Amino acid sequence: MQENKVMIVGLGNPGPQYETTRHNAGILALDFFAGREGLAINSVKFQGLFSAVRLHGRQAILLKPQNFMNRSGECVAAFAHYFDVKPQDILVLHDDLDLAPGRLKMVSGGGAGGHNGIRSLLASLGSGDFVRLKIGIGHPRDDEETRAVPVERYVLSRMSDDQWNRFQDNLPRIAEGISTFIAQGVSPAMNSMNARQR
């Protein structure tokens, strides 16, 4: 019996001006994971940068869509079709406004929750069965300094020093969650990622 391939997607926007913005938390997390595994995500196909490798006993595709957040689903769907990856074997790393900075949550299925990248994936894949690893960036209304900042500008702004430090502290934990998803599947990964956080 042929094993299922897995795909790990880091959502964000291409270009140096977006590199360390809140909306690029997914790409940054995937880059950290790839670096830890000694991999470079630099092959080009379907408006995406990718690496197709064998990791933790499974065939894995690491993908960074390069056609901007609002259209990232088109790239992901093209890769899923080309590599024959089922939605439930796709893990999407993305920023989340409803989680406080430093919080992480892995879920399977669900709606877009106001996230344009996830909305694009839902439309292009025709399924909500993919797994999401939500990386908390907080909501501008929750902080006095950002309360007046529109959400669109907030997500495209750089993280504050405190948010950046919390994000950096979480990267090894995110990488462990990705490894567990690849090696053992979604349930063990969710149990590990969603265990009570400090």
What Rg, in angstroms, do the CA atoms define? 16 Å
CATH superfamily: Peptidyl-tRNA hydrolase
Question: In the CATH hierarchy, what is the class?
Answer: Alpha Beta
Q: Quick check: average pLDDT?
A: 92
Number of domains: 1
Number of discrete helical segments: 6
Largest sheet: 7 strands, mixed
The CATH architecture name reads 3-Layer(aba) Sandwich
Q: Quickly give the structural class.
A: alpha/beta
Overall geometry comes to globular
Strand order of the largest sheet: 2-3-4-1-5-7-6
Low-confidence segments, ≥5 residues, pLDDT <50? none
Order of secondary-structure elements: EHEEEHEEHEHHH
Strand content: 15-25%
Percent of residues in helices: 25-40%
**Count the strands?**
7
Distance N to C terminus: 41 Å
What is the fold-level CATH name, i.e. the topology? Rossmann fold
